[in-house]
Amino acid sequence: MRAAVVLGLLVVTGCSGGPEPVPGEETATVAGQRVWCAGEGPAVVLVHGIGEDASSAQWLDVERALAGDARVCRYDRPGTGASDAPGTGGRGADALDAELDTVVEHAAGAGPVVLVAHSFGGYPARVHAGRHPDRVAGLVLVDALDPSVGVVRGTGAADLRSVEMGEEALDLADVEAAAAAVTELSADLPLAVLSRGQGLSAEWTAAQDRLAALVEGTQVTVVDAGHQVPTEAPDAVVDAVRSVLPGG
């Protein structure tokens, strides 16, 4: 049963009755996705995980803390949070990358962006960094999924069709294959890998090492946090983002 324990934690729950809105936060709808941005400075885009109640609300504390240093944007993918369900099913890696690209453009214009991704969100962020190396100025992977574990073992689901994803209607096999194809990233990409310190398995620990090996990145274990690092230890995420911000 270890596989179910490895990351039955991958499923992200929303923040019902959660923290107060971020001061100065503005919202827009971009390519069918609800996007919230606050602050000024280098662009940061926050990418959430997967699950029946997954949404970008998990990033509110991180967004609030970083808004004094950067233009921080979070977004709900189609079929999650405040975004409508996608018009078609079977959305694979190309669709996720195109959707993320519109958010990056909204956040950064033609400039570079720092991607911060939790859990399953590590897949689209990894693909985007691999496909658009001149747009991604930094990458922070927060207890992110690695293909060596995979989304089935990560969630404890019976198979890909059983993975809870709300109304996202994703082709998870295609998304996972695209993430696995990114075996290394640009050598000069600043990378920070944050890993939980609680509820670990040898498989998950080895997967975090593989993420750090995508480029010679820094790796930090958040000792007192479980998988939900963005809500359990937002300060650790903030410190990691600041470490990779341009000029940071």
- By DSSP (H or I, 4+ residues per run), the number of helices equals 9
CATH superfamily: Alpha/Beta hydrolase fold, catalytic domain
Fraction of residues in β-strands = 15-25%
Strand order of the largest sheet: 1-2-4-3-5-6-7-8
Shape: globular
* Rg value: 16 Å
Q: Please, what is the average pLDDT?
A: 92
End-to-end gap: 42 Å
Q: What class do helices, strands and sheet pairing give?
A: alpha/beta
**Domain count:** 1
Kindly report the CATH topology: Rossmann fold
Major beta sheet summary: 8 strands, mixed
Total strands: the figure is 8
CATH architectural grouping: 3-Layer(aba) Sandwich
Q: What's the order of the H and E elements?
A: HEEEHEHEHEHHEHEHH
Report helical residue fraction.
25-40%
Protein model, in words:
It is built from nine helices and eight strands. Mean pLDDT is 92; it is low at 1-9 and 13-17. The chain has one domain (2-8, 24-244): Rossmann fold, CATH 3.40.50. An eight-stranded mixed β-sheet has the order 1-2-4-3-5-6-7-8, with helices on both faces. The chain has helices spanning 2-7, 60-66, 93-108, 122-131, 150-155, 172-181, 202-212, 229-232, 234-244, and strands spanning 26-30, 33-38, 43-47, 71-76, 113-118, 136-142, 191-196, 218-222. Helix 7 (202-212) links the parallel strand 7 and strand 8 (218-222). It has 248 residues and is α/β, with parallel strands linked by helices. The N and C termini lie far apart (42 Å). Helices cover 33% and strands 19% of the residues. Helix 3 crosses helix 4 (122-131) and helix 4 (122-131) crosses helix 6 (172-181).
